[in-house]
Each structure stands twice: as C-alpha cells, then as structure tokens.
Amino acid sequence: MFYKPICDQRRRVICKLSYLLEREREREIERERMEGGIRRGGEKRDSFHVIHKVPVGDSPYVRAKHLQLVDKDLDASIVWFWKAINNGDRVDSALKDMALVMKQQNRPEEAIEAIKSFRHLCSKQAQESLDNVLIDLYKKCGMIEEQIALLKKKLKLIFTGEAFNGKTTKTARSHGKKFQVSITQETSRVLGNLGWAYMQQGKYRASEAVYLKAQMIDADANKACNLSLCLIKQGRFEEARNVLMDVLSGRLPVTSTDTKIIRRAAELLQETELQPQPCNQSTGKNMEEEVIERISILLNEWASLESIFDHSTIFEEISHQSDGIAC
C-alpha cells in the first residue's frame, strides 16, 4: 500500500530524467551537426559547416559568415564583419570578405575606403590578396588611373621577387575550387589587366605592346581577343583577323569554359570582315620606322616603370622583335 506511491514517484522521476536526457541528447546532436558533423560507425557524415562553407565556432567572424552564406542577410553580415575587425577576429579574412560583400551590394566606394582604412591591421601575407580586391573595385568604379598604379605596383613586386611572398607558386581559389598559379601565369594575367586598362584610356598602342608581352609569357584565347580588339581600334583589321584566326583554329589553349571567348572571337572576326580592305597606298613609313614608333610610345607610357624593369626582358624582347622585322 505504501509502495505504490513510492513506485509512482520513482516512475515519474525516471520518466522526467529520461525526457531531459533525451532533450540533451538531441541538443548535443544538433550542436555536433552545426559544429562538425556526426560520427556514426566510425565515419563522419557531411557536416553543416562543410556543406555551407561556414567556419566552426561562435565568434563575430563565424557569425558574419553564417549570415552571409546561410541566412543570405548581407547587411547583417557586414555589421558582424565590422565587429570581427574591431575585435581582432580573423581580420585578414574579415576585411576581404566584407569588401567583397560590399561589392556584391554595389557599394564599391565603401569597400575601397574600408580596405584603405583598415589594411594596416592585416598581415603582410594578406596584402597581395587585398590588392587584387582593390583592382577589381577600381575597375568597377571606373578608377582607371588608380587601377593602373596598383597593377604597376604588382609588376614591381613580381620583378623584384617579392610577389607570392617569395615563392614561385601560390594557391588560388575560384568557384570554390583551389588550384596552383605560377609566377609566370600571374605576370601574364597582370599584364593583361594592364593592357585592358590602357585600352579603356584609349592608349591603344601601349595596350597592344603590353598584350603582346603577356602573350609571349603565357598565351591564352581571352588576351588574344583583347589584343585583336586593340588592333581593330587602330584600324589594323588584317592583323586583327590573323590573331582571331589563331583563337578560332585552336592554336591557342582553349578549355571547356572558353565557349564565350570563342563566340566573342567569331563576333570580332565578323566585325573585321565588314571593314573595307586596306589599299596598297604608301604611308611614307617602312616597317622598321613603324615598329620604332610603337616602341617609343610604349616607353613613354611606361616611363614611370623604367627604373623598375631596368633592362628587363619586357623591353629587350620587343627590341629583338624590331631587329628581326628590320632584317
């Protein structure tokens, strides 16, 4: 008779404890799922942070990334990126990611100001990456002079051996995939960007010379199309056709992602076909004089870089080309 209430009380206590333990177990499972995944049978299942590319933890930077990538609340993510920078939490990544989010929100001027104001808080290793972001931001804002100055700075670092933190390759990331970039590929890429910037200023001959150098170092179809456009702007349609035929005939490296480039090359070629054929009238200049004039224009455009390259191959190889043509 006295045992029944005691047994009922024990059952209630046991049931309550079981319920609490079950709730705690559910919370623990959710925590593990959020922070690193669940282990079952010795195998780790895909975890939340891997799927969403969100770092583990509860710091301001982690919250900013969660807001950016999971909640898609970009305004709130910027607030937390600011908090991460102010708290010294992964400042290198926080500043770069915040600038990219601002660019995504069409606020490039704010992003530029943020990088300029806070890059001194970042490590030396992060400076090159911040420069790359700045170049894209300058391009988006139409700040061509600033873009050219930064590209020349990057070329100086390459030719003085300071780029890539003194290494010959670096790990880059594109669309979530990592790959290795050599110093040769980076040099060609920077020269290609510089050639495009010169073209936006209407400095077509300087742009042409830079594109030619970039193609000598590491040729690709995209820079070839830009070079042909530069030639078209100068009315040199036959030369542009020859460059475009190299693209369309497959003489330049083409990957599966270059379909847009091939289409662009075909459109540019069609544009040259609509132009009148050049007549054979003499311009009063022979080939040697024409090449010397182009090199003079290049040297004038690159006057501020003369001390940087100082007998470097960029001028030596162009000089050799003119010697070959003259012969």
From TrEMBL:
InterPro entries: MS5/SDI1, TPR-like_helical_dom_sf, TPR_rpt. The keyword Coiled coil applies. It is found in: Nucleus. Keywords: Coiled coil, Nucleus, Repeat, TPR repeat. GO terms for cellular component: nucleus. SUPFAM superfamilies: TPR-like. It comes from the Eukaryota. The keyword Metal-binding does not apply. Its main location: nucleus. Belongs to the MS5 protein family. This is Protein SULFUR DEFICIENCY-INDUCED 1. The lineage of its organism: Eukaryota, Viridiplantae, Streptophyta, Embryophyta, Tracheophyta.
